[in-house]
Design a protein that fits this description.
There is one protein chain. With 168 residues, this protein is an alpha+beta fold. The chain has a single domain, classed as Aminopeptidase (3-Layer(aba) Sandwich). The protein contains four helices and seven strands, in the order E-H-H-E-E-E-H-E-H-E-E. Strands 1-2-3-4-5-7-6 form a seven-stranded mixed β-sheet, with helices on both faces. A hairpin with a 2-residue loop joins strand 2 and strand 3.
Length: 168
């Protein structure tokens, strides 16, 4: 397994992996066939990462993108010390340490970039993801009631965050 920053040339493979993930799980934002399929949109997003001082990592196994972690930095000065995290790993590659490896690289990046608060939301019933986040230092800060509507049911989400000290 190899963790690295996303590159422009990854756009098509990343989009295909995310579409596959949308088919495999009900725990992410997009429903199957809801995600925009425009590769140029993904390319533009990848290009904008450096301008926004944000990060996207991909996890590769045997040359195939099997997971990602996105860390979008707050735009405005008062929240530039924060990032909002989204993580997705294809079903067949879960439980192999990919999530922890992604968070390890993220932690190194946060130290270099003066990030002191990492935030995410997760469906309250997604115990596997919650365990991964807790293992990597995230704590539940609150509940977002009826945050999602999935297959005719309202789903609550946890707000989770990790506050870190910057080593100088």
């Amino acid at each position: 397994m190899h963790i690295r920053e996303v590159e422009i040339g990854d756009a098509k493979a990343l989009l295909e992996m995310q579409c596959q993930l949308d088919q495999q799980t009900k725990n992410m934002m997009f429903e199957e066939d809801e995600r925009p399929r425009d590769v140029s949109f993904i390319e533009n997003k990848i290009k904008s990462l450096s301008e926004e001082n944000s990060l996207m990592l991909v996890a590769e196994k045997h040359g195939k993108i099997v997971g990602f972690l996105s860390a979008e930095r707050g735009m405005y000065r008062r929240i530039q010390h924060t990032v909002y995290i989204v993580v997705g790993i294809l079903v067949g590659y879960r439980g192999l340490g990919i999530g922890s490896a992604l968070f390890k690289v993220l932690d190194e990046w946060t130290q270099k970039n003066q990030i002191t608060r990492l935030e995410l939301t997760v469906m309250c019933h997604n115990t596997t993801a919650i365990a991964l986040y807790r293992k990597n230092g995230f704590e539940i800060e609150g509940i977002k009631k009826h945050a999602m509507y999935v297959e005719g049911n309202y789903i609550d989400e946890y707000y989770m965050a990790k506050v870190v000290d910057i080593q100088k």
